[in-house]
C-alpha cells in the first residue's frame, strides 16, 4: 500500500529498466519523456525510486529470468514503490508476471503510452491492489503513438520507431504473440520526429521496428505516394536539409529480396550497412524455421550489396542448436559466414519458447552441443570480421565521432559501413570533433575494429 505522503506528493522519482531490443530501448526513452513532461524526475534504474518500470523482453528464458530478478531486487530497495511490468514478457505471460511478489501493474505492449496515467490512477487508490491491462495479441491493431522523442542517451545517434508487429511467425519466435499484427506509423509523425532530433544535433537516424521491412504492408495503410514500404520514409528523409545519415536497424529476408534491395541503394543518405538476419545456413533448417527463403536467395541479396559497394557492411543473427540441426547443417552455417563475408555475427543458442511450433518439435539438441557450436560460430564470425576489416585497409570512410578515449588517445566512432574506428589525435582535437562526420582513411586492424587517420 502507498502511504498518504506519497499519494499527496506531486512529483515522482521514476526508474526505468530496459531489457532486450532496440525497439524496447526506444520505447523506454518515450516513457521517460512522458514522465518528465508531466513534471516527474527520472532516476537511475538502480536508485531509490517511487516507481519502477520494467520494460521486459521474452526472446529467451534468460530474458524472462532477468526481468524477475530485477523486479524482486527493486522491491527490496523500496518496498512502498509502485512496480510496473510492461513489454513482451508481460504481454505473453501476464499470469506468470502477476505471480511475482511485488508487482503492482502488469501492462501489455500497447499500454506504454498510458503508463503515466495508469500509475497515477493506481497511486490515488485508497487500497493497493494489483492491476493487469493486457489484451489478446490479435486485438493489437492500432499503432500506439508514444509522442515525438526529442532526446536520447546517445548524443550522436538516435533511434526512430517506424513500425510495430510481425506476421511472419517463424517457428522459434514468440514475438508475433507479444507484439501483435503489423502496424505502421504515420509517415508525417516519423518525419516530424526526425526533424526534432536533427534540431537537437543528432547526425545519424536509425530506423527501427519489430520487422522494419514490413513497414506500410498492411492493407489498412494509407498509401498517398507512388513509393511503397520503407521507401516512403527514406524518400522523405532524403529531402530534409542538414548533414546527417540514415541507417536501417534491420531488414528481414523473409520479406525482402534482391530487387527490393536494389531500389534502396539509390538513397544517398542511407548507410552502406544492413543487418540481415539469416538464422541458419542450412536450407533444411531454414524451412523448419519457416524463414521463407533459402541460402541462395540470401546470398543473392548479399551479392547485390557487395556489387554496389565491395565494402558494404552486412551484419547478421544466427541460431545454433535448432531442433533437428545436425552437424552437417551446422557446418553449412559456418560455410555461410565465410561466403557472405559478414562484418559481425550475433550468435544465439536456440531457446525453447512455449507456444511456438519449434517447442513441440523432436530432436532437440543437447545443451553441451549447443554450447560447442555457439563457440565455433563466434570464432568463425570473428575471423570473417577480421577479413572484412582487412579488405577496408587503405579505403576512405566517414566516421561519426562519438567519444574521445583518453587512455588510448583516440577519437572513436563508427564508419557508415559499421566499422568501429579509432583515430589517434590530441584531446583538444578529439573533443572539438565530437558529433561530427569526419573523413577518415582506414589504416590497420585495431582492438574490436580498425585504426584510422584523418583524411587530408
From TrEMBL:
Pfam families per UniProt: Radical_SAM (PF04055), UPF0004 (PF00919)
Enzyme class: transferase
Domain Radical SAM core: from-to ranges: 152-387
MF term (GO), any: 4 iron, 4 sulfur cluster binding
Function: Catalyzes the methylthiolation of N6-threonylcarbamoyladenosine (t(6)A), leading to the formation of 2-methylthio-N6-threonylcarbamoyladenosine (ms(2)t(6)A) at position 37 in tRNAs that read codons beginning with adenine.
Protein name (record): Threonylcarbamoyladenosine tRNA methylthiotransferase MtaB
Cross-referenced PROSITE patterns: MTTASE_N, MTTASE_RADICAL, RADICAL_SAM
Catalytic activity: N(6)-L-threonylcarbamoyladenosine(37) in tRNA + (sulfur carrier)-SH + AH2 + 2 S-adenosyl-L-methionine = 2-methylsulfanyl-N(6)-L-threonylcarbamoyladenosine(37) in tRNA + (sulfur carrier)-H + 5'-deoxyadenosine + L-methionine + A + S-adenosyl-L-homocysteine + 2 H(+)
Domain of life: Bacteria
The keyword S-adenosyl-L-methionine belongs to this UniProt entry's keyword annotation: yes
Listed cofactors: [4Fe-4S] cluster
EC number(s) reported in the record: 2.8.4.5
Family recorded in the similarity comment: Belongs to the methylthiotransferase family. MtaB subfamily.
NCBIfam families, alphabetized: MiaB-like-C, MiaB/RimO family radical SAM methylthiotransferase
Database matches in SMART domains: Elp3
Species name: Aminipila butyrica
Residues covered by the MTTase N-terminal domain: 12-124
UniProt keyword annotations, A-Z: 4Fe-4S, Cytoplasm, Iron, Iron-sulfur, Metal-binding, S-adenosyl-L-methionine, Transferase, tRNA processing
Amino acid at each position: 500500500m502507498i502511504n498518504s505522503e506519497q499519494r499527496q506528493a506531486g512529483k515522482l522519482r521514476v526508474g526505468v529498466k530496459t531489457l532486450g531490443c532496440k525497439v524496447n530501448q526506444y520505447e523506454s526513452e518515450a516513457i521517460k519523456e512522458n514522465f518528465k513532461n508531466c513534471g516527474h524526475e527520472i532516476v537511475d534504474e538502480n536508485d531509490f525510486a517511487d516507481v519502477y518500470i520494467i520494460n521486459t523482453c521474452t526472446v529467451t528464458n534468460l530474458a524472462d529470468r532477468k526481468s524477475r530478478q530485477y523486479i524482486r531486487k527493486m522491491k527490496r530497495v523500496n518496498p512502498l514503490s509502485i512496480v510496473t511490468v510492461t513489454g513482451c514478457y508481460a504481454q505473453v505471460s501476464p499470469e506468470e508476471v502477476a505471480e511475482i511478489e511485488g508487482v503492482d501493474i502488469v501492462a501489455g505492449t500497447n499500454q506504454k503510452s498510458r503508463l503515466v496515467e495508469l500509475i497515477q490512477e493506481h497511486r490515488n487508490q485508497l487500497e493497493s491492489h494489483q492491476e493487469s491491462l493486457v489484451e489478446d495479441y490479435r486485438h493489437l491493431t492500432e499503432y500506439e503513438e508514444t509522442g515525438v522523442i526529442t532526446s536520447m542517451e546517445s548524443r550522436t545517434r538516435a533511434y526512430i520507431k517506424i513500425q510495430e508487429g510481425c506476421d511472419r511467425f517463424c517457428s522459434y519466435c514468440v514475438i508475433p504473440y507479444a507484439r501483435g499484427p503489423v502496424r505502421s506509423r504515420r509517415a508525417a509523425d516519423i518525419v516530424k520526429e526526425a526533424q526534432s532530433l536533427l534540431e537537437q544535433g543528432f547526425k545519424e537516424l536509425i530506423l527501427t521496428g519489430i520487422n522494419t521491412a514490413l513497414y506500410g504492408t498492411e492493407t489498412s495503410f494509407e498509401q498517398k505516394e507512388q513509393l511503397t514500404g520503407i521507401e516512403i520514409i527514406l524518400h522523405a528523409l532524403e529531402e530534409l536539409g542538414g548533414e546527417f545519415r540514415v541507417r536501417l536497424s534491420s531488414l528481414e529476408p523473409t520479406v525482402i529480396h534482391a530487387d527490393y534491395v536494389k531500389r534502396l541503394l539509390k538513397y544517398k543518405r542511407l548507410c552502406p550497412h544492413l543487418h540481415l538476419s539469416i538464422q541458419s545456413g542450412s536450407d533444411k533448417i531454414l524451412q523448419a524455421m519457416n524463414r521463407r527463403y533459402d541460402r541462395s536467395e540470401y546470398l543473392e541479396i548479399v551479392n547485390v550489396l557487395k556489387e554496389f559497394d565491395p565494402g558494404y557492411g552486412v551484419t547478421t543473427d544466427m541460431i545454433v542448436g535448432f531442433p533437428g540441426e545436425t552437424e552437417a547443417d551446422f557446418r553449412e552455417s559456418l560455410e555461410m559466414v565465410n561466403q557472405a563475408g559478414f562484418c559481425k555475427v550475433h550468435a544465439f543458442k536456440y531457446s525453447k519458447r512455449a507456444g511456438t511450433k519449434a517447442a513441440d518439435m523432436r530432436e532437440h539438441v543437447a545443451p553441451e552441443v549447443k554450447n560447442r557450436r555457439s563457440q565455433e560460430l563466434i570464432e568463425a564470425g570473428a575471423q570473417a570480421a577480421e577479413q572484412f576489416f582487412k579488405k577496408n585497409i587503405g579505403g576512405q570512410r566517414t566516421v561519426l565521432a562519438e567519444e574521445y578515449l583518453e587512455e588510448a588517445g583516440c577519437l572513436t566512432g563508427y564508419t557508415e559501413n559499421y566499422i568501429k574506428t579509432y583515430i589517434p589525435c590530441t584531446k583538444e582535437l578529439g573533443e572539438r570533433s565530437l558529433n561530427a562526420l569526419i573523413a577518415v582513411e582506414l589504416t590497420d586492424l585495431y582492438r574490436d575494429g580498425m585504426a584510422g587517420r584523418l583524411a587530408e
